[in-house]
Design a protein that fits this description.
single chain; 121 residues; alpha/beta; Rossmann fold; 5-stranded parallel sheet; 5 helices; 20% strand; phosphoprotein; Sig_transdc_resp-reg_receiver; Bact_response_regulator; two-component regulatory system
Length: 121
């Protein structure tokens, strides 16, 4: 059975795009959140195996959500997603405990390979 994945992104089209990529690779247990509040609620309710977390969110930044999830679960496997040009933010996220990052727009194979690598750790 494939891992439970939570996708946190405020853009509906991005959530749908990522969901389509995941489903093509037999990831069926997918949870969605559109903002920081929903992300924390969904994490606590579902305890996903991997979180794909956008850096730019309404209410709180993805870095804040990263910190809050890691307070709930220090073993959380979080992959940050960002647009080009956010290298400092990505470096900060990795220092704080993110397992990896993917730069948007990302390729499907890179996404799947990153998830597989994180879940094997």
């Amino acid at each position: 059975m494939k891992e439970k994945i939570m996708v946190v992104d405020d853009a509906l089209f991005m959530r749908k795009l990522i969901s389509g990529m995941l489903k093509k690779h037999d990831y069926e247990d997918i949870i969605f959140a559109k903002d920081s509040v929903e992300a924390l609620t969904q994490y606590q309710a579902h305890h996903p195996d991997v979180v794909l977390l956008d850096i730019t969110l309404p209410n709180e930044s993805g870095i804040t959500v990263l910190n809050e999830i890691l307070k709930l679960d220090e073993n959380a496997k979080i992959i940050m997603c960002s647009a080009m040009g956010q290298e400092k933010v990505i470096a900060d996220a990795l220092r704080k405990g993110a397992k990896d990052f993917i730069v948007k727009p990302f390729q499907e194979e890179r996404l799947i390979r990153t998830i597989a690598s994180i879940t094997e750790q």
